[in-house]
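Our preliminary data section would be incomplete without showing what the modeling component actually yields. Below, a chain of 89 amino acids is followed by its predicted structure, encoded as tokens that our downstream tools consume directly.
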Amino acid sequence: MGYSIAHDCEGRYYWNKRTVEGLKEAINHFKQSIGIDPSDAEAYSGLADTYALAGDWEYGILPPAEAFPLAKAFRRCPRTTANPSYCAT
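Predicted structure:
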């Protein structure tokens, strides 16, 4: 549990940088957190927020048609963790 929280904090740290590199690093940390604790709602929320920014024209990490559906899916994941395959990327 402790390592999961550490990855959540690191993910938010990089998300708040609002740079291409920061968003990529945030995605990495949130995914690591979910790997440690698949019921970690903070990590799913962080991924949703990060993918929402990743599809923004300013960052251009992913095309909006790819990023926004991921953001929407991860936004729902904390409520659907009974079916983790729904949340898989």
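Confidence is low (pLDDT under 50) at residues 80-86. Residues 20-36 form the longest helix (17 residues). Preliminary results of this kind motivate Aim 1 of the renewal.
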